[in-house]
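dumping this here so i dont lose it
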């Protein structure tokens, strides 16, 4: 059985090809040279129909590749909302972390994916998880965000979800201090209203 044909079909979003390969007994979670499963390949391309077929057939939404990405983590980080929701309804491990030791929520917050952040918060991802850079989702949204409307909405969502607004980075700098040093007045206002110091 040629597993690369499954990865190729997933990359193209070839639903009929995937179904044919599965019916012929292809291993659903076989890995390519990067350690990726067909489901992760489909997720990379935001191939919604292909991911649905694979997930419905039992593909592992938590299977990680060689750089610690899984379909769940990648969908969250990239804001692939439909795929993210499918992974969450099929056993996504909310505690799983990427190569930076962060949950799916942290890169979603950093990249300004408002709906992915909302979805992950509602799913119960730890809003105060600290990654290997000693940053939380709130810190990343401020430090690596652009201070614009999407990042303001994400800061609001995190604050409403009970994120610790005074959880500092490894240098003792709080979210409020970072917001001020970046000149993000709107975010500063949200944090001050939440008793940030």
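and the seq i came up w/
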């Amino acid at each position: 059985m040629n597993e690369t044909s499954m990865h190729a079909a997933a990359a193209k979003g070839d639903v009929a090809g995937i179904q044919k390969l599965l019916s012929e007994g292809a291993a659903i979670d076989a890995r390519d040279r990067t350690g990726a499963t067909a489901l992760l390949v489909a997720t990379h391309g935001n191939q919604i129909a292909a991911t649905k077929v694979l997930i419905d057939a039992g593909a592992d939404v938590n299977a990680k590749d060689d750089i610690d990405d899984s379909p769940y983590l990648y969908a969250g980080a990239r804001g692939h909302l439909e795929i993210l929701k499918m992974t969450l309804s099929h056993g996504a491990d909310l505690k799983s972390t990427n190569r930076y030791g962060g949950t799916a929520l942290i890169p979603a917050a950093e990249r300004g994916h408002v709906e992915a952040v909302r979805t992950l918060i509602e799913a119960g991802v730890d809003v105060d998880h600290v990654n290997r850079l000693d940053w939380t989702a709130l810190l990343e949204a401020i430090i690596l965000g652009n201070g614009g409307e999407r990042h303001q909405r994400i800061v609001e969502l995190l604050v409403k979800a009970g994120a610790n607004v005074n959880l500092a980075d490894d240098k003792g700098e709080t979210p409020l201090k970072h917001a001020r040093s970046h000149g993000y007045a709107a975010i500063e206002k949200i944090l001050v209203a939440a008793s940030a110091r």
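The chain has a mean pLDDT of 97.
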